Amino acid sequence: MFQEFRHLHLQEVAGVDHLLAPSQVRPPATLRSPALTVMTDFTESAPVTVPQGWQVDTALEWMKSQHVRMLFVVDDQGHFSGVITARDIAGAKVLACAQQQGIGRADVQVRHIMTARAGIQALTYDQVANATIGDVMLTMQGSGEQHVVVIDESYAGVKRVRGVISASDISRLLKVSFEVMYEAKTFAEIEKIVAHGGEL
Where in this chain does the record put each CBS domain (predicted)? Predict the structure, then answer.
């Protein structure tokens, strides 16, 4: 059964003193770094999805367990139908929906407060492939959104959601709070913030 495999020789680790870190093999990210470095690419990791019939607090718990702040909503056939964010669930949307529909919070479903496909603006994969982190950050700042969806039609000519870029991923990579960056008036100020680790 195992004839096609070979036993690998294990090495001694006693003389190894150092751990390799990403900063040793690639330079630290800046606003001029390629935008693809902050995109979660669904050809490499699967999107985190939620059925549109889930109760909103269950969806929020799912987000927390998956360490994301946005879920891709799918219908009964598994087709993409929209997005829902932690901000949607924690904000006034749920209460407003419950009052409008005459139901309790426990009855509010993802479908009631999600942003449907028609209300989502996206970047194409080609745009992201030719952009910098600064370009994407400026775009997100202008839209007021914490996430931007990336679409691609290079697979059999069918438009698909290829990935997502989140403000929190940009913030983590640059080691600067997104809110601090938003307060900056010019890109020169933002670059100064990034260079000084979050302080002007």
Answer: 39-108, 114-180
